[in-house]
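Would you mind writing out the residues of a protein together with its fold in token form for me to study?
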Amino acid sequence: MLRRIRQILAVAGILLVTLLFLDFTGTLQAWFGWMAKIQFLPALLALNVAVVVGLVVLTLLLGRVYCSVICPLGVMQDVFGWFGKKARKNRYKYSKAITWLRVTMLIVMVAALLAGAAAIVALLAPYSAYGRIAQSFFAPVWAWCNNLLAMWAESRGSYEFYTVDVWLRGWVTLAVAALTLIVLGVLAWRNGRTYCNTICPVGTVLGFLSRFSLFRPVIDTSKCNGCGLCARNCKAACINSKAHSIDYSRCVACMDCIDKCHQHAISYTYRHKSVRKESAAPVDSARRTFLTTAAVATAAAAVKAQEKIVDGGLAVIEDKKVPERATRIVPPGAKSLRHFSQHCTACQLCVSECPNGVLRPSTDLKTLMQPESSYERGYCRPECTRCSEVCPAGAIVRITKEEKSSIQIGHAVWVMANCVPVTDGVECGNCARHCPAGAITMVPMDAADASSLKIPAVNVERCIGCGACENLCPARPFSAIYVEGNERHRII
């Protein structure tokens, strides 16, 4: 019964977290956004004391149920392990904990957090690793299926659904996500919770706490017949059937041993001094098959993005290229580049939730996979605060629409060599017409001739760096006006 309850909660948890990365409407975020905020490392970086204390207390009471129920990366390992057990049951065996590696990875994570090494933090954070997998592989497939449904509905005169752009926001992130998925899949398929109990720093911290948990699996040596079946089915490799002992620092409270023990020698109960030895119970497992390349194959089907065409499909609009910015742009609410880098775990949730196509992962080694703003596909609309609403790590603090309109994340810079009035000798003024802050005015190119073609003049003090001018500029492939980021955001 306990195992079944754990499985139901785990499936519900990973589905809800995954849907957060798939939902391009923002509807589910309003209902289930809290699932991202109860993840251990994001809550710790956000200084969400209530969540951190709650998870610590939960671990001290029930053991590492966080790893087997709440953490999506942990649940995904169980999925791979399930397929592995289909291929060959009784596949696991007890092994000693690799303590030095666990401690080393924890020290590396702590040092990276203190030093602001965003790339290392992003690679080791379990929730962020799963977020990148969901955003890189699942989200494009989801959007592609949505577009098929929208086209089918449109062919029947229904417009209940609408199409969205299907595109991969960063090849570096895709490569890292693919490598993570392959490593996790192979390790989990062969050895169960190897990643959880050797590499994951969150697992190490919670493993230390779970040594003192009040409730835990306990072996009754009087009932155990020494068959060793429990050890051969323990995905955490933490049951020593010969010594009748369990390494509670690695036990993830999956309840498999309890559910499968034919002798009922293992029970999940209050720990007490009289029972120190625990016998393994036979774990009955069915044969399972392994799907190695499913995610990669499905992602390949979604790689081809939709082409944007002008009215009537007469010509393909040339894609814009990213300008070389001296300072990268981070979303309103990030406060500054330093604050953002110190708190962001590159989980990609804000990237998935951005309805304007502005956020995408960074390819810079110092800020690898952390989101940054770019305006080739859209601009940061003043009325949108979605990224600040979904960030679980406190990298983007929550702001109101009114506050966003007064936050200067950057400023526009005009490039005369690309401007249409200069290059083509025709009137334009697109940037001034669409600037929501009224920071751009059109002035005569020749100050002595009021009838000459007009060019944009930027009021830096009023510009908020939303990128509307850069996005809507007709110049191709580089806009005649682009946004430079501010290292520290200003209130104007």
